[in-house]
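Database export, one record per block. Field names are fixed; values are copied verbatim from the stored entry.
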Amino acid sequence: MANPVTAWSATVQRDIEESEHLFELAFKGYNLQLFNCGDSLWLVCRWPEAGRIAFRIAFGMNSNFESASVSEHGGTFLITASTRLGYYRIVLSTPESQAAIFRYTTTFRAKLPLLIPFWPRDIVPLTRDGRIENTAGIIHSHQVGTRSGQIFFSMTKPQAGSVLYFQNLGSMSAYCEATEVSLGETVGGSWPEIGFRFPVNPEKALPQDKEYIISDAFVLVGENVPSKDCDIASQFLGNLAAIYSLLPKPDPVYHDWPSTAKKILGDLHKNKGCWTQTNGIPYLNAYVGDYATPSEIMVQLAVLLPLHEYLDWSGTRHPVFDDLESGISQFYDERVGTVVRWHPDLEDGLDKSEEQKREMVMDSWYLHHPLLNLSRLALRGSETAKRLFLDSIDYAINVARHFDYEWPVFYKMTTLEVLKAETSPGNGGEKDVPGSYAHIMLMAYKLTGEKRFLREAAKALRSLEGLTFDIFYQANNTAFAAAALVELYKETGQHRYLELSYCCLAGIFKNCQIWDCGYGFAKNFPNFFAVFPLNDAPYTAAYEELEVFAALHHYMEASEGLEILPSLRVLIPEFIRYATGRLAFYYPPMLPEEMIAEDVKTGEVQKGLWIPLEDIHDGWEKSGEVGQEVYGAGIAFGIIPRQYFKINGLGATIYLDYPVTRLRNRRNSATFHIAGSPDMRANMIIQEISRSQMGGVTVEQKLNGRYRRVQPKPPGVFDLAGSGLVRIKWGKP
């Protein structure tokens, strides 16, 4: 059956066939040809065996291209063209890469102020003899909201291969600022009309005589058409890493987390809007000033766990930890034999305004998340957490077996009656919950040594088969599941678990914003490489970002010594690198007041308080409209133990913006491994020692089997390769 097409694509095949190409370029077995077809300039990529795909590199709108010329400068091609409406410059290049990648960047300068009400998509598959509407293809992934401007697809009729098309959306920020439009939902489409639809400006005119980038596309082409879930995920991750290495990237921002942690701990301890009391025991509110919602176990544990990590790192104690620890036992409900979401003595206060705000209603992921944090605390030595976790684990197993390891969205805890089966019609329940369940089974095995928990994990993981990107439901849970799958692979030797971890991570990176939003309010803070909490979430969220950060750290630790996909040694450390600076900008004192929402859904926002906003939106929307989330207050506490390392003999602390493993402190030296890719760079800062002491410090990195000295730039700051052994020496040997 033929695919319907619009008038802007119906004639493309014939237009190209009836035009002479302006130039031709061969690279890595592929062939590129440029055609002027009147109102569009098309770049046609021909596969080595069969198949062609056309990329519209310039659109003349309601005008034809009067002329187009091509010149070459050192392997880069400059295409200049004009219409009655304006001037175009297109730079075409084939960047150095092992993959077959070409890039085109198009700029436009209008001859008069222009309103642009329409723009067609820029990718059209071609046939050898037939018609566009008779082609066939599979769209594996595409942009949602303001996530990365990517579409990953395979052309199957005629069978050509696969393409990852990636728009560097941040390069168009100046255009968006001038016309007050957004770059959300711009890359996607339906076969056969796919790709980038330039954000139109029907209300605010584009200024004349000023050049704007209107497209900056990286295109990776390949001959493989993946069909299995692991192959799709692996190819997506590999293609994304290849393009990522070529992207222009903002400089990472350093934030002084140790000093910020003290402010956060002070505000958390003293601000009355963060706390409520029940039976004389203090509990954290979910949001500042939210006294109407009963205390939740997830909220307490979301701060308690990272705070435990931070206090252990700093060697100190704090009454906030004691207050939180004193209350978690109260969430165990003897009636069902498990910890529950809401404080049992406060269930009568649930206002029933949302589905989960009803007595004994459980959101499937929510049962496992507190159990995971209890198990993590138990492994850190908390007997209270261990008791609560093990007393609850059999209930979790009963629920899993009842639903045959495919969980609904909401169910009744007492009867297991399904209250909401699907996230949306036809899409099933919470599909990453089997991974979360397997994770807590792994943790139960670690705490008890009982093999029955591993058998339960194996049963649950069968529900992830064939889902690929659809495993992803909630970012933090999916990321932790990926790390658990690696551990289960090491425990069982079943390679399928490692493959499923790739599917989890493909879902994570598909839901990232790998571009720097430089328009509207977003000009005021870094937002490159943010991750969204849900597939359809309209904003990024503080707590979920912290947990993804922690989970990806754990993935690198768990996979040390394993041959994982090389792409993950690029993407995971780079996410961590940018997160360490970016996450500070959820805190209101770091943001301009005018970008914080006045109307708040839950509680209140105190703009001077070091408690994070839950939500950061597109640059044209104000942030914090959901509320100021107390349960996200542990950001600093989670980052510090993972990025700051005490060098005891030197009396210094080092900060590294990449994941680190195997830190060894010795009398006159310290060594550690940077867990990333040698093709990337990491930044290290030596802190808390004087300039004179710094003069006696030597930093070396082992590359190609030998140590090489690294010179500081500036003093105390070192640029390192993203992988390899680092040695810091001081004093006498």
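Remark 1: The longest strand covers residues 211-222.
Remark 2: The CA atoms of residues 340 and 567 lie 39 Å apart.
End of record.
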